[in-house]
Design goal:
Growth Hormone, Chain: A, 3 domains, two-stranded antiparallel ribbon, 21 helices, 2 strands
Length: about 550
């Protein structure tokens, strides 16, 4: 059966998987679903509060429970994919996410809904890095992978915006439960198509040691960090509770660093940060995550609370940003392939900063065309131009055996950045609005002024991302490695090829050398190896 495809040791070139484009569509659908769920709930919160009689204090946990487990378990999910098998872990994550979505829609109480959302976030933390590592190992580094990551960036960038649109439409016409039910048929279809289309890959047996202490410490540290940040706007940043949680998170992460420096098989080998542009891309990804999630968060609040748009109309306004993002993503990957990640990333962050500066002018009596549309269009251009090269740079030069780890790192950076961005932007906006309300200003005017100040803060973060892109992404390190002149038949391990080469005569070796050089020329000119072959490893472990 087609599902019984061979387990291979991934290479940096990824091999020429004949099903790589259909596989991208399958794992991309699951990734899009998890990103969409970070925002689809926003516009449905009032309906959920009414239907389940949720208190205002408990309502935030419908969002926070998902964010905590999503951000906290990403690194563990990525490394589990490397160790246990990327396809196997991916399917398990999608199945968990799908079942929890069904439970969310059927929930008759706030407690059950919040618990299911937490488990749903765990499923998303498994799916997201496993899916990206599958893409990385299926496509050779170079133009083919850049095209795939361009599509990936479009899915990630538009997912949050589509979530707002879908949340508005579903809540308005069929009820809030369907923002969760919509995931069920998608999840079932993804699970059914994954086995025949997605190639299994994982580390070899002698490298599959589990760093349990590192996994527990980093997962706990990240979960406590996200929890502290998500609840700080309500609890207060200077309270003993928030300071204690941040201190506990710092202590756990410090313990994790100590464990990793001494572990024989660390969960996160720190040498990965010396590979290419991994470190710089993760820093920029952290900043862009803060800009992405906080800007959409404040825009949703402004449109609903000040302009008084319905849930449906609020979602429709985001179509301008979503449609532009999808159209520009192809341009983003093309420019990145031609110019390198650094200038494209900086341009995208600059456009994003310009969008935030424009939105600081929002009035109380605004309209879609004059107030929102220019900002949405700038976001639609800036988002893919920034996120696509960040994804490419975060994976550049990483060996296939650490694909899940690299995917987990960049996704964690963006999710933690998003949590911090939302917390800071909402704190700034709420604090300024409260000050104006105490001075006797009208509610709409106070809220608008608070959101405008929040957009100024987000613009500053986007400007920092521009500077970080130029300072931390070195062009020569983001270039793809040269193509490999040797190849092995699909599913055959490199060690077997090396052993079998000892049986060749000198004449056969010379013939193989000429064939390999010819294969190298074709691979370099076409930028995609033949579908029947997988490339051997291109570089030694760093």
């Amino acid at each position: 059966m087609s599902a019984a495809r061979p387990i291979v040791a991934p290479t940096s070139a990824g091999g020429a998987d004949p099903h790589r484009w259909p596989a991208l569509a399958v794992v991309g659908a699951a990734f899009f679903m998890t990103v969409m769920d970070t925002s689809i709930v926003n516009v449905a919160l009032p309906s959920i509060q009414t239907a389940l009689h949720v208190s205002r204090a408990s309502l935030q946990w419908v969002l926070t429970a998902y964010v905590i487990t999503f951000g906290g378990f990403l690194l563990l999910g990525g490394r589990a994919a490397d160790l246990l098998g990327r396809r196997r872990v991916f399917v398990g994550g999608v199945a968990l996410f799908t079942v929890c979505s069904l439970v969310c829609g059927l929930a008759g109480s706030a407690a059950l809904l919040i618990a299911a959302r937490a488990a749903q976030g765990l499923g998303a933390a498994i799916v997201s890095p496993a899916a990206l590592s599958i893409v990385m190992t299926a496509f050779a580094e170079g133009p083919a992978r850049n095209r795939a990551l361009g599509i990936w960036g479009a899915l990630g960038g538009s997912g949050a915006a589509v979530g707002v649109v879908a949340g508005g439409v579903l809540t308005q016409y069929v009820g809030w439960a369907w923002i969760f039910f919509v995931n069920v048929p998608i999840g079932v279809l993804v699970c059914a198509l994954t086995w025949p289309l997605v190639r299994e890959s994982r580390l070899d047996g002698d490298k599959r040691q589990v760093d349990l202490a590192g996994a527990v410490s980093v997962t706990a540290g990240l979960a406590v960090l996200v929890y502290a940040i998500a609840t700080a706007p309500d609890a207060g940043w200077a309270t003993a509770r928030t300071i204690g949680l941040l201190a506990a998170s710092a202590a756990l992460l410090m313990v994790f660093v100590i464990i990793e420096t001494r572990a024989a098989a660390p969960l996160v080998p720190f040498r990965i940060f010396r590979v290419g542009t991994v470190a710089g891309a993760n820093i920029v990804g952290f900043l862009l995550g803060a800009v992405l999630f906080s800007s959409f968060f404040l825009l949703t609040l402004y449109v609903q609370q000040v302009l008084h748009y319905s849930a449906l109309l609020t979602g429709v306004t985001f179509l301008a940003a979503t449609g532009t993002t999808v159209l520009v993503s192809g341009l983003a990957q093309g420019l990145t392939t031609r110019l390198g990640p650094r200038p494209v990333m900086a341009l995208g962050a600059l456009l994003w900063a310009a969008a935030m500066v424009y939105l600081t002018r929002i009035p109380v009596q605004g309209s879609f065309v004059s107030t929102l549309l220019p900002g949405y269009l700038l976001i639609g251009f800036g988002l893919p131009l920034a996120l696509v090269p960040v994804s490419i740079a975060a994976l550049a030069g990483v060996e296939g055996r650490e694909a899940g780890l690299a995917a987990g790192l960049i996704t964690t950076a963006q999710q933690v950045g998003g949590a911090i961005g939302i917390a800071l932007a909402s704190t700034i906006a709420a604090s300024h609005a409260a000050t104006l309300l105490r001075q006797g200003r009208p509610v709409a005017e106070a809220l608008t002024s608070g959101y405008a100040l929040g957009f100024w803060a987000i613009a500053a973060v986007a400007g920092t991302a521009v500077l970080a892109s130029l300072a931390l992404i070195r062009p020569h390190e983001a270039s793809p490695p040269p193509a490999v002149p040797a190849a092995s038949p699909a599913g055959e391990r490199p060690e077997r090829m090396m052993n079998r080469s000892n049986e060749y005569t000198q004449m056969e070796r010379e013939t193989c050398t000429r064939c390999a050089l010819s294969s190298h020329t074709l691979t370099t000119s076409r930028s995609r190896p033949a579908a029947r072959w997988r490339a051997m490893p291109t570089r030694a472990s760093r």
